[in-house]
Write a structure and sequence with these properties.
The structure holds two protein chains of two kinds. By secondary structure, chain A is an alpha/beta fold. Chain A is built from five helices and 13 strands. The longest helix of chain A has 11 residues. The model of chain B has no long low-confidence stretch (mean pLDDT 91). Chain B has ten helices and twelve strands. An eight-stranded parallel beta barrel of chain B has the order 1-4-5-6-7-10-11-12, surrounded by seven helices. In chain B, helix 7 crosses helix 8 and helix 8 packs across helix 10. The chains are: A alpha/beta, B alpha/beta.
């Protein structure tokens, strides 16, 4: 089985994510720079903690941006989580002027609800899957993504936002599957190759 | 609001073992923190708080290795607190795998720590824990295990902590803690309903009615220790009763 590369640019702890991947029976490996990637890494994950600009800075400065764009063009498996999901869009209100990878169209915006960050468990509304209508996952974010054609699940916090997007072999979530109990483990299992 | 209320068991840890209570005498060993944490996750806990009550400085390294072990086993979020003094302490705990770090006395002593920590790590990682007494029992914010009155008003300190960047507040009413007379809902509810950050009620829980009262008053989450450790109430039974009472709560299969 090929290994799963977790892009490690120091913007957050990836211990839980690595552990969650191990629990699904896959083998994670942390990669700080593209040059460190072995050929047996078949899938990449962009984890998320911190802000839009910090993650983009880390990706740009460590040589990840061109590799990721190529990776996606070649339809190789990619997972994005939380801020790792947000940077797949064009830009974010959190850090105006900083370009995201632009895989999905639109701007990440600050949510309008009174209490921010959105911190806790909330329901996913799956667009195409009618079972598991009560899937509940863990969110920690103050900014959220608009609905786009590639949105396959939404969440509501005041307004409705994208919770999961998928384009080819790129799938990304605003919530943290590694923090979402059994539901999260199941979702991560579905995404891992 | 689409966000569900959270049930949060709290584990007090002394020298690597979960203990009953926060007294420094007659500590009863309740077992291995990692095992208990996993058990609570399986039983339906939405989050956990791990509080390090180890008195000595050597205990710090034990705490970090426990955090690492818990992070590698748990798939729900957890907060670590107890004796957190500075940015380096917070960094070490987050690096070890904690999702959030709680600060209490250090924030009272140096409120700028809240601003620095939230700017550095993000508000979402920083919980300000506040121990307070309610109106008829000494009114105010306390430190040093409840002995030292530091601020006259829990409302003012909670508001200040929030403005300085706290991402969440853990409000423990210490005159109720361990008493079983129910959560304090006056200040807790008011702060939960007015401040723009989540508020966790803590201190005094005995049964489902107490949790219902706290959530109805506005608390976003509720924390308890003894009643879960002693199995006075099982989390699944608690959640069933909350659901029946119309409280939005995560059901776990």
């Amino acid at each position: 089985m090929s290994r799963v590369g977790i892009i490690d640019i120091g913007s957050g702890n990836i211990r839980s994510l690595a552990a969650a991947i191990i629990r699904t029976g896959h083998v994670p490996v942390r990669v700080a720079r593209p040059e460190q990637m072995d050929d047996d890494i078949g899938q990449l994950i962009i984890p998320g903690q911190g802000r839009f600009a910090t993650v983009m800075k880390g990706l740009n400065e460590n040589g990840w941006t061109p590799l990721l764009k190529n990776w996606i063009t070649n339809n190789k498996p990619l997972i994005g989580i939380c801020v790792g999901f947000q940077i797949l869009f064009e830009e974010s209100e959190e850090d105006p002027g900083v370009a995201g990878l632009g895989i999905f169209k639109g701007q990440i915006k600050r949510m309008t609800a009174r209490k921010l960050p959105m911190m806790g468990w909330s329901f996913l509304q799956h667009q195409t899957i009618t079972d598991n209508a009560e899937d509940c996952v863990y969110f920690v974010n103050s900014y959220a993504a608009p609905l786009v054609p590639e949105t396959i699940a939404t969440m509501r916090y005041g307004e409705r936002y994208s919770a999961i997007v998928r384009k080819g072999n790129t799938v990304a979530s605003q919530f943290h599957p590694e923090k979402s109990g059994q539901t999260g483990t199941r979702i991560l299992q579905q995404w891992l190759c | 609001m689409a966000l569900l209320k959270r049930i949060i068991p709290c584990l007090d840890i002394d020298r690597g073992r979960v203990v009953k209570g926060r007294q420094f005498v007659d500590l009863q060993d309740l077992g291995d923190p990692v095992q208990l944490a996993c058990r609570y996750e399986q039983e339906g806990a939405d989050e956990l708080v791990l509080l390090d009550i180890t008195a000595s400085h050597e205990g710090r390294n034990t705490a970090l290795s426990i955090v690492r072990d818990v992070a590698s086993q748990l798939s729900i979020p957890f907060t670590v607190g107890g004796g957190v003094r500075c940015i380096d302490d917070i960094h070490a705990l987050l690096d070890a795998g904690a999702d959030k770090v709680a600060i209490n006395s250090a924030a009272l002593k140096t409120p700028e720590l809240i601003d620095q920590a939230s700017a550095f790590f993000g508000s979402q990682c920083i919980v300000v824990a506040i121990d307070f007494r309610d109106s008829n029992h000494g009114d105010g914010v306390y430190a040093a295990g409840g002995r030292l009155r530091c601020r006259p008003s829990v409302v003012d300190w909670a508001t200040e902590a929030c403005h300085r960047g706290a991402g969440e507040l853990l409000l423990t009413c210490i005159n109720r803690d361990g008493s079983g007379i129910g959560f304090e809902t006056g200040f807790t509810g008011m702060l939960a309903n007015t401040l723009p950050v989540p508020v966790i009620a803590s201190g005094g829980a005995r049964n489902a009615h107490d949790f219902i009262a706290a959530f109805t008053a506005g608390a976003d989450a509720a924390l308890a220790a003894g009643i879960f450790h002693r199995r006075d109430i099982e989390i699944s039974a608690l959640k069933r009763q909350l659901h029946e009472a119309g409280i939005a709560i995560r059901k776990t299969c």
